[in-house]
């Protein structure tokens, strides 16, 4: 009985892990938006920033969540996106 329980729990954990991985990857695909680092850098290059700010921004872009915020914010209001990015770089 215990062996059966462990098999079920192991399968459940594997399924949950696979689901989380799909969700993480699927954000880009399901929304049809590219949240990649090159996309963020491309958007950053359209803004009035110093080289020092660019270098600091690269560290912010290491986080997928930060890239999603930046790209999404840029679509709506680049000035606000830049303000947010500068706050993250502090």
Structure description:
With 90 residues, the protein is mainly alpha-helical. The chain has two domains: 32 residues; 57 residues, no CATH class. Helix content is 81%, strand content 0%. The longest helix is centred in the first third of the chain and has 30 residues. The radius of gyration is 19 Å and the shape is elongated. It starts with a helix and ends with a helix. The mean pLDDT is 87.
Helix content: over 70%
**What distance separates the N and C termini?**
55 Å
Classify the secondary structure makeup into a structural class. mainly alpha
Instruction: Figure out the total of helices.
Output: 5
Q: In total, how many domains does the architecture comprise? A: 2
The largest β sheet comes out as:
none
Q: Tally the beta strands.
A: 0
Amount of beta strand:
under 5%
Quick one: overall form?
A: elongated
Radius of gyration: 19 Å
Regions with pLDDT < 50 over 5+ consecutive residues?
none
Order of helices and strands: HHHHH
Overall pLDDT confidence: 87
């Amino acid at each position: 009985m215990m062996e059966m329980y462990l098999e079920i729990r192991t399968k459940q954990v594997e399924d949950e892990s696979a689901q989380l991985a799909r969700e993480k990857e699927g954000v880009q695909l399901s929304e049809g938006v590219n949240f990649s680092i090159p996309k963020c850098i491309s958007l950053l290059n359209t803004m009035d920033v110093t080289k020092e700010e660019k270098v600091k921004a690269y560290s912010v872009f290491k986080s997928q969540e930060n890239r999603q915020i930046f790209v999404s914010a840029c679509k709506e209001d680049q000035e606000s996106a830049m303000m947010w990015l500068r706050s993250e770089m502090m």
